[in-house]
Amino acid sequence: MSRLRSFGRFWWDFVIGDDWVAAAAVVAAIAATAAVAATRIAAWWVLPVAVLLVLWVSLRRAIAA
Amino acid sequence: MSAAFLVLSAFLASAVEMVEALTIVLAAGLARGWRSSLTGVGAATVVLAAITATLGPALTVIPINALRLVVGGLLLVFGLQWLRKAILRASGFKALHNEDAIFAEQLTGARTAARVERAGVDWYGFTLSFKGVLLEGLEVVFIVLTFGSTQGSIPLAAAGAAVALVLVAGVGIAVRAPLARVPENTMKFTVGIMLTTFGIFWSAEGAGAHWPGSDAALLGVLAFVCASSLLLVRLLQRERRARLTPLGVET
Q1: Which residue ranges make up each domain of chain A?
Q2: Which of B1, B27, B94, B142 has the smallest count of CB within 10 Å of its CB?
Q3: Predicted complex ipTM
């Protein structure tokens, strides 16, 4: 069990890193892009704007920590 | 244009990871003997080759839009990790990556550890090299496979990584010291920008968005990520200076 946990922990650290909120926000931003793309509105701008916001919040969290 | 980006990104990302792996292998080799260190390198290379051989063909059978969505999302999460650390380093909120200091720390640890022999090799030297090469190599494999499969050319991405391997290993063998003069922090910043750029581009396409100007929009995304990152560095540098300046004292 502890080996399985270590394995999971390794992949979590490898992909998600030390800010899971940023990773969750990226997933939400991709979902928002898909939602906008399903309408007639252009959706290409959603991710760049979202990424800038996520990066800023993530940096603030890192500095505060 | 995308091909040049692909090769350059794979080259830079691989070179950075290989410089870090080289530091660990050198420390293990000098402190515990080259036999155990190089056996660790060989074993890690076999594991990495097995992972690449398994995942590489599997990725090519996934439909391109699903692949771009998943791979783009992963690259974006991964790239933001790199970019966040690079911005914190560039603005002074995090210590710069220093290969000489890391080498000295690894060397001290390796020299003081107890000697245990297993299968004719020093176990500490073997595992230190094995873990170092495997962990840094996994990032290379991840970047090469994701970049290569999404652009439809794993061999091209692998070529970028291979050039980095030859270059770093060649210089490492020649100087037998950590490659502290490599502008690692700048390279990490560049790789963070590239991973984030490709991540935005592909995940948006995978989610159904259409970029104005098609593939040429990649340059626009690159410029946006680059400008935003530099702006964030400037803002944080100013904040750090303000924190360090005593209240009421003008500089």
Answers
A1: 18-64
A2: B1
A3: 0.91
**Identity of the residue in A30, A46, A51 whose CB atom sits nearest the CB atom of B196:** A51
Secondary structure of residue B179 in the 3-state scheme: coil
Nearest-CB residue to B87 (from A23, A33, A59): A59
Q: Rounded to whole angstroms, what are the CA distances from B97 to B90, B100, B233?
A: 11, 9, 17
Q: pLDDT of chain B along its 251 residues, tens only? A: 577 878 888 888 888 888 888 888 888 888 888 889 899 999 999 999 898 888 877 877 788 888 888 888 988 998 899 899 999 999 988 887 777 788 888 878 877 877 777 777 888 889 989 999 998 888 888 888 888 887 777 888 888 889 998 998 888 888 777 776 777 788 888 889 989 999 999 999 999 999 998 888 989 999 999 999 999 999 999 988 888 876 555 54
Is B168 buried (19+), middle (13-18) or exposed (0-12) by CB count in 10 A? Answer: buried
Coil, helix or strand at residue B211: coil
8 A C-beta contact, residue B70 and residue B169: no
- Are residues A51 and B204, on separate chains, in Cβ contact within 8 Å? no
Instruction: Give the count of Cβ contacts less than 8 A between chain A and B.
Output: 100
Q: Which two tokens stand for residue A38?
A: 């399903």
B34-60 helix and B2-32 helix, angle to the nearest 10 degrees: 150
What token pair was written down for B151? 């652009």
Q: How far is A2 from chain B (nearest CA, A)?
A: 19
